[in-house]
Write a structure and sequence with these properties.
Layout (H helix, E strand, L loop, with lengths): L1 H18 L15 E4 L5 E4 L4 E4 L1 H8 L9 E6 L5 E4 L5 E8 L2 E9 L8 E6 L2 E6 L2 E6 L2 E2 L2
Antiparallel strand pairs: 1-4, 2-3, 4-5, 5-6, 6-7, 8-9, 9-10, 10-11
Length: 148
Amino acid sequence: MRLLKYFSVLLILIIISACSSLTLKPADYSWPIENVLKVDSKGFIEEQRYSFTLKVKALFYEEFKDSTNFSGKEIRLIRDKVGFYYITGKDFKNVYVFEPEESGMDLENKILVTETGLVSPAFNQKSPNIELLDNSNKYLLNNKGIVR
């Protein structure tokens, strides 16, 4: 009986230890500079340095209501410290904030920046935020929206 009691306790401890998770903190996912990537004829962008490929055809439909006029266009992409991806491009009115998920990305936020469209957008890392430059305009962004 006593042996059964010890065995039960040991079994419970093994099960509990097997169910625990490992968390590594802190982590900094930020990319030091933006990536300017050309969209290919199939609607994909690819970043060799980060082994990153993404189909952006649906993004063009969301922004322009046209999913056929994307080939050769440039997408600007940067990642913040927390791990969110910020995506925009020339003539975009919005910055799209995505959260990575298994085999894709989920839209976290769509930030309206200008009603007329961006002329010459560029991202900078301003940790913990992201800076968007467009000619003389500067916007400080996070995943919730425009900070200033």
